[in-house]
Design brief:
By secondary structure, the protein is an alpha+beta fold. The chain is built from seven helices and 14 strands. Among the domains are: 8-95, no CATH class; 99-217, Band 7 domain (Tetrahydropterin Synthase, Chain A, 2-Layer Sandwich). It has helices at residues 65-69, 135-141, 151-171, 184-199, 218-234, 236-249, 255-294; strands spanning 3-4, 7-8, 11-12, 21-26, 36-39, 43-49, 52-57, 61-64, 90-95, 99-104, 109-113, 116-132, 148-150, 204-215.
């Protein structure tokens, strides 16, 4: 660092003290001879002269302005520092890292559903990611009038159109309104494409959009719980088998539960068997009485209830029929 005309050389750098700043403009009266430019990881440095971009530098490191930077500037290649004068220019630092932002619907979105004149109100939240894709466009559209640009300003733009885009991609694709979480990936991909088309006008690209949760009105949520409970009861045999398998797989600590489940299932099987036997006996007595009157062989076995087909012995259990 040297002295020229009683003036100190500059150190041009951006020490990021906030994680939500997309670009920051270094401003000074002039850049002195002997000044240094420091570019850190995840940063680009843009030199601007009279509001025009002169050069964009992406390599990280420390650079001498006079020997490393000026020779690469568009209209300032032949600039030489005077004894008492410096170069009047602006340096814009751009954060090139990817930003992750949380979002949530400001108001409930009324989705069109048959039978509900006003639609079904839902709320949702999740995250989206974006990064700077075109520094020149960002400078032309935003940086010319701002000293810095933050994530909240991008988020505000996204939220202003998010409700409309969610409704579009939920309704137009014919999604199941009561199981939107299952289609969250496809819906999020469609929303990301539309947001990217909008934000590319600012030199920003959307790299991802995720729907983490969809919430329904309390009445709809209660109906979903009842429907799930009814479905479980309707398939009680499968539920019992799964519970027994899990209990046995968990080791000795789950033996009591497995025993209870096995006992319950055995009781159900024994009850069914007893009902079958009683039904067979009743049918057998009725048939036998009819046979004694007519003098013919019974049509059904009195022991197991199987058809006799006119034989003297049951073809199923071997019981003598007369």
């Amino acid at each position: 660092m040297g002295f020229f005309g009683g003036q100190l050389a500059n150190v041009i750098e951006w020490q990021e003290y906030r994680d939500d700043v997309i670009f920051w403009k270094w401003e000074n009266d002039e850049i002195k001879r002997g000044s240094k430019l420091i570019i850190r990881a995840g940063q680009d440095a843009v030199f601007m002269y009279n509001g025009r971009v002169e050069g964009i530098f992406t390599d990280e490191g420390s650079f001498d302005i006079e020997s490393d930077i000026i020779p690469f500037l568009s209209t300032l290649k032949g600039f030489t520092f005077g004894f008492n004068s410096g170069m009047r220019a602006e340096v814009l630092f751009i954060n090139t890292k990817e930003f992750t932002v949380k979002w949530g619907t400001k108001n409930a979105i009324n989705l069109p559903v048959a039978g509900l004149p006003g639609g079904m109100p839902i709320r949702s939240f999740g995250t989206f990611q974006f990064k700077v894709a075109d520094a020149q466009t960002l400078i032309d559209k935003v940086a010319g009038i701002k000293r810095q640009f933050t994530v909240d300003e991008v988020k505000e733009r996204v939220l202003s159109s998010l409700d409309m885009l969610l409704m579009k991609w939920i309704a137009s694709e014919g999604k199941d309104m009561f199981n939107l979480q299952a289609n969250a990936y496809d819906i999020g991909r469609g929303v990301a494409e539309d947001l990217d088309m909008e934000l590319c006008k600012l030199g920003i690209t959307v790299t991802g959009f995720q729907i983490q949760s969809v919430s329904y009105p309390d009445e709809v949520a209660a109906m979903q719980k009842k429907a799930a409970a009814a479905a479980m009861v309707g398939n009680i045999n499968s539920y019992t088998q799964v519970q027994m398998a899990e209990s046995l797989a968990n080791g000795s600590g789950a033996g009591s539960m497995a025993s209870d489940m096995a006992g319950m299932q055995m009781g159900m099987m024994m009850g069914q068997q007893m009902m079958n036997q009683m039904s067979g006996q009743v049918n057998g007595q009725t048939v036998q009485t009819a046979g004694s009157v007519s003098g013919a062989y019974p049509k059904f076995c009195s022991n197991c209830g199987s058809p006799t087909n006119g034989g003297k012995f049951c073809s199923n259990c071997g019981q003598k029929l007369v």
